[in-house]
Amino acid sequence: MSRSQPQDPLFRGIDVTASSAVPAGQSSTVKMVVISVITQGELADHEVPFIGGGVYKASDPALAGYTVQYKPPFKASNYGGYYTYLVNNNTVGINNATAQTEPMGITNSGQKSLMFPFFTVNEGTPKEINVTKSHSIEPRGDGNDERVKGEGKFKKILHVIFENEVFGWTMNDSYWKLLAKRGKVLTNSHGVTHPSLPNYASLIAGDFFGIANEDFYNINTTTIYDLLDAAGLDYATYAEWYTPLATARGPNDCNNELFIGPLDNTNPDWNSPAYRRLDVPALLFQTYTTNYTRCSKIYNATAQFDADVFSHKLPAYSFYVPDMLHNGHDPESNSDYVHQPTTAGIWFNAFLDMYLEELTEQGTLVVATFDEATWQNDSDSTPNNNNAIATILFGHGITPNTKDDTYITHYAALRGAITNFGLGSLGRNDTNATNGDLTLLVN
């Protein structure tokens, strides 16, 4: 059977208590617009928390004293003053501008106090998901090629995503050379666009919906989580520094703060917060954040991951989100852009020392990949250019110190998970075999 995407949501204005989104000296009660796409259970509308389903209106008092700029294709008169628009199947390059306050000392173009709007992204032609037909069924070799949902080459798949490095620079680092000896290097792996955020979206949705920058989005589309729910398979995200919110919906609601934790302070040229919302794929989608059950499956990595691994509670499909030093985004203070993978390589070798043996015994495929190549080495920002990144497979079924030259993109990771668990399809790039399929690269 097929399941249609929810129709365009209705706007509901509610009063909520803001956190760091309110400039100092202003009232903490602001008028926001919440876009609700999933029934909130027994909660009344006025009790539904602002968890990322909407945006500030330009005339909101919370924006007083801040310059709100509109860039093409936005105009102040568009959409009743709300920051919202419809993406038309990857034909619209998204550009916006200013505007939630993050008083953490983060600077941007010389400004020290910024407001950031959330944009709602709707798919131009919503795709239907198919929950009954898998892309392909690989023979198991035991004479019985019938396969039920969730019964594939791997019992579990764990993704670990790193930041902003071209393949050559990564694999020339001594610590990543050591990692290569522990796994299978995919030498022809590619991001699908620039910058980072749309690549994260593509990993779970099979598209980046025309997003062309790193503003703050609530994407209203289906994802692999819809397929996993339909199949009755569990999932989780473990993010370093992330802290769930206690709300009227429950004690472990989605936290859509843009940044959490201290500034890493390792290099004065970077000045990054330890955690960024954009690195957590699930939080980019309002079809995820408006569902409390889904929200309760995003954990603080330090508090939960170790216990889940060694108690055999790691779910079938999961992401581990390292912080901004562990993911290679920021180099050490005495380092430079070329050598930024070093800290990530040191951390990830230690991570595998702790967990790889146990994960392998549990039938887990560990997929370590970068979101995109550095622009210095991949200067053409047009989607689907070279964008060569390092991807290494570890764990169950992997022969260490091997490689594969098959062309793949981020969509291969999504297609591989869908194939492995027999989930069906999202009807996007997960159905395009030219993007590759990770399950076909493992014996």
TrEMBL record:
The entry's keywords = Hydrolase
Residue ranges annotated as coiled coil are none
Name the InterPro entries for this protein. Answer: Phosphoesterase (IPR007312)
GO MF term list: hydrolase activity, acting on ester bonds
Pfam hit, one:
Phosphoesterase
Q: What biological-process terms (Gene Ontology) are attached? A: phospholipid catabolic process
Its domain of life reads Eukaryota
Q: What is this protein called?
A: Phosphoesterase
Source organism of this protein record: Amorphotheca resinae ATCC 22711
